[in-house]
Amino acid sequence: MINIQNLSKSYGRKQVLKDTSFTVNNGEIFAILGHNGAGKTTLIKCIMKLIPYSGEIDYEFPEKDIYKNISLQMQSSVYEEGAKVYEICNLYKQLQKSDIDIDELLDEFDLLSFKKSNINNLSGGEKQKLSILLTLINKPKVIIFDEITTGLDIVARRKVWGLIKKVNQEYNTTIILTSHFLDEVEYLANRIVILEKGEVTLKGSVGEIVQQTFGNKKKISFVVPNLVPNLKDGPLEQELGNVTRDGNRFIIEYDAEQEAEILEKIKESNGTDIYIKNYSFEDAFLKNLGYVINEKGEITHE
Ligand SMILES: Nc1ncnc2c1ncn2[C@@H]1O[C@H](COP(=O)(O)OP(=O)(O)OP(=O)(O)O)[C@@H](O)[C@H]1O
């Protein structure tokens, strides 16, 4: 468990983290989400005690053992020119006085055939697989991945997701990750914090964050043919209340329990092309930043 209480950090006069508090539980995959400059990497540097800060971070192991217990993998690693895969693995093994079987680990990560390859000749996906493998050599309790899938194609990303899940489940390792990819976080994370200008604005599971943001609200969109376009305060608006309208297409935001009543009214109005939308994690994330995606898929300020 890592317990972060009232963490604040400034670079000169610029405050980057403001009174941030949350707990990472043992065995979970925990994601830190936020747009560029939100303070994610700074937060990780604080957890790793790489920079000074104010506030409290408590670990379940003595602070002097942080590097034995937490492995950190940043977005891109730089390896010595000409270094071979097995040489780097053995170097990590010696430095960390680990007794792990490197061949077995390479085999598990489908990298055994690359054992004698020059690391710089590996593809982006293979390099990231190796990065994940290297974090395991000292058998840490916690691994932190900072934007580890940035720059990978969709297939390589999904393979890395599989490995992160495997490391979490089979090696019983707690994972903390930062990412810009909502699908990645949705797929991997048990719990999430969303940082906005250094402050935690939302925390919880994907479902909890959507619920905190939208409650039981849903959206329905439908077309009523043969209506005069842009008729202000027409009969349908008067009947249904919170309606927005674009030509003959109507959009209503409603509470889930009103659904049967709304559908009935749409039927009475000869509505067609009916589309019901449940708010997604992406909708919640964007709303938190002050944006919405409209019916045409365009992003606009609320
Ligand atoms: N050493 C530093 N000195 C001064 N300012 C810094 C330093 N490191 C980071 N910052 C600033 O702190 C803010 C947060 O940076 P940080 O790298 O933590 O953000 P991030 O959420 O990881 O961003 P990204 O998603 O772009 O990687 C940014 O505005 C950045 O310019």
Automatic annotation (TrEMBL):
Domain ABC transporter: start-end pairs: 2-222
Domain of life of the source: Bacteria
SMART domains reported for this sequence: AAA
Gene3D superfamilies: P-loop containing nucleotide triphosphate hydrolases
Keywords on record: ATP-binding, Nucleotide-binding, Transport
A GO term, aspect molecular function: ATP hydrolysis activity
UniProt-listed PROSITE patterns: ABC_TRANSPORTER_1, ABC_TRANSPORTER_2
PANTHER family with a match to the protein in the record: ABC TRANSPORTER ATP-BINDING PROTEIN (PTHR42711), ABC TRANSPORTER ATP-BINDING PROTEIN NATA (PTHR42711:SF5)
Family note: Belongs to the ABC transporter superfamily.
The name this protein goes by in its record: ABC transporter ATP-binding protein
Species for this entry: Ornithinibacillus hominis
